[in-house]
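Hi F.,

I've been meaning to write this up properly since the lab meeting, where we talked about keeping a consistent format for the predictions we share between groups. The idea is simple: the sequence comes first, exactly as it goes in, then the structure tokens exactly as they come out, then a line or two of notes. No screenshots and no reformatting. I'm using this chain as the first example so we have something concrete to point to.
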Amino acid sequence: MNYSKIFFVFLLIFVVNSVSNNAFSQDLTNINQLILLNVGDEKITYEQLEKAYQKNITKQQKHLYMLPEDSLMDFINLYANFRLKVLEAKRMGLDKDSSIIEESKQNRKILSESYLFDKKVSEVEINKMLERRKYEFRIGIIFTTFNQAPVRDTALAYEKINKAMKEIQEGASFEDAAVKYNDDENLGKKSGKVDQWITSGKIYREIEEAIYSTEPNNVHPKVILTPFGYFIVKVYEKQPRNFVLGAHILYKLDGQTDSIHLAENVAKKGLQAIKNGTPFEEVAKQESSDNVTAENGGLFKEYFSRSTGFEKSKGMLDIKFADALFNLKDGEVSDIIPTDFGYHIIKRIATRPLYEAEEKEEIKKIYKKQYFESDKAKFFDNELAKLNFSINTKLMGQLLSILDTNASNINKSWSDSIPNNFLDKDIFSMDKKNYKLKTFIDLMNTQSNLRGFAINEEGIIRAIKKILEPDVIAFATKNLENEFPDFKQTLNEFNDGVLLFKAETMEVWNKVKFDSLRAKKYYEKNKTKYITDPTYDISEIYVLSDSLAQEIYKGVLKGENFDTLASKLTQRSGFREKSGYMGKVSGNTNKFGKILKEKQITSSIIVSPQQIENGFTIIKVNSYEAPRQKTFEEAIPDFASKMQEEYQKELSGNWISKLRTIFNVKVDKNNLKKVMEKNKN
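Output, unedited:
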């Protein structure tokens, strides 16, 4: 087993998921630099132990110092054993082993790429979104769209949106321009005002940038281009984003004119009852048309944000309802609020702020789904620019005029039409290195990760970038250790893990082999534990009808041959030709054997019909074997893995004991006491 690979997978998952982890944010400066442990020449601080503890997915407390003293010591000893194994691996010279060095290089490539994009792309944008989502906005939009196919034609939409912008800049109101120029009919009717509050991650990115850079009651000064059309944005309001727990009483409309007045009148009576002292919850239970909330006194079970909806279900409330709810103070009850659903009396129960930890997890999902790939591509292009990447545009144009741009490179004949005198020309260059067209063609035809690329300009450029990707990533990650101390520490820990597992494989795992002599000693010591199951040799007649089963059973009791009846009547597939014979079954694990064991049957007998599955079974016990002590050979499957586990623990324990005689291990009791005192404070 490749234990270094197991460690690598675990560590990679950790790196990907916890680069941004802020679990270590608590102020521990007064204890961080205390040296708690000496292993050989290494002095290990509380900070090092705390960081190791934070990677433990089964940790009992938020921080290491919060553990009871015995648990804290257990962790320190585990860490000491880890360092002992690493030191021993280095003493054995494994860190100079060429195969381990090469493996570490390859693994660094994978780790560094994950870290690079997480740290320099994802984390930056996620933190920006987190900061932005502390606020929400009411906005207005003027939107002009353009045809996407067969040819993208933006001229008319561009002209129209610029007319709107010009009129606004010359003094016309945004609302009048929205009515006049909006291609969205509904937005036009509402003077451009959007019926929902907006926060980061809830609207197209270019529009979001405009919203967050514009003060309330102002129009963003520039026309915004998106893949779907042109936009002008006005910001009406900017508010801190809170979460509100609300309740309501609904007086529903049934679509009839008379019902409007009836519902309104009943709602007025309900509101007056509340003002006269009847509890809101009691009125809700008695009168609300909302069956889901009425039984809870009108209460919504989830907190609500105007821009992101309910916490879990993500459902949205009518904008009039939401605004009325948020205009109340905690404990206040609204006047009657009309919506398309009917008349509402609303109560604001409680308010809570945005929880950053929960919000960040939500943002990570949004970011990965909506933005990561495009941000990754932009970052990649920026790195390409640093390496002076360029494409021979003249040669590209010539190729596109020759090639079938509707095809792909799946068929290796895609390049047959290219003249030979083109093959030695440079198609692209990067970092002062030129790449010949013939090299590009060879790579397109031989590398599996380049198969299926379109033979048009976009496809060729994508293929070129794919070819250059390893070199670009190597360039972008070459200084990660200097830029990010955490990455250097993670990489060192990973390399230590590789060394540890290599040494442990040599000293323990390779020695854990099945030893017959050891096995026999183990068996003799524990043989009374290994007992055979009660075993029944059986035949069966299975039928679907209880009455038929009873009839067959009576016939057998009168002397009819069981096997003959089974060969004619059993309805279990494949068993007529066997005359119902099933062979030996366990009384502990087999469904038929369990029936017999429960009935305490220990002799040859025919059992009366028993209901089983979707029918009835008549079981004939041909013979019975009582439980007995297992022989050595029979017991091997029962104890082999446990014996090996105990042997592995014995070898590991002996190895650690040996290492503690080679490398001094000492816990600083005074500093440990200072750490424990922090928990008391």
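Notes:
Residues 293 and 299 are 5 Å apart (CA to CA).
The mean pLDDT is 92.

If this format works for you, I'll send the rest the same way.

G.
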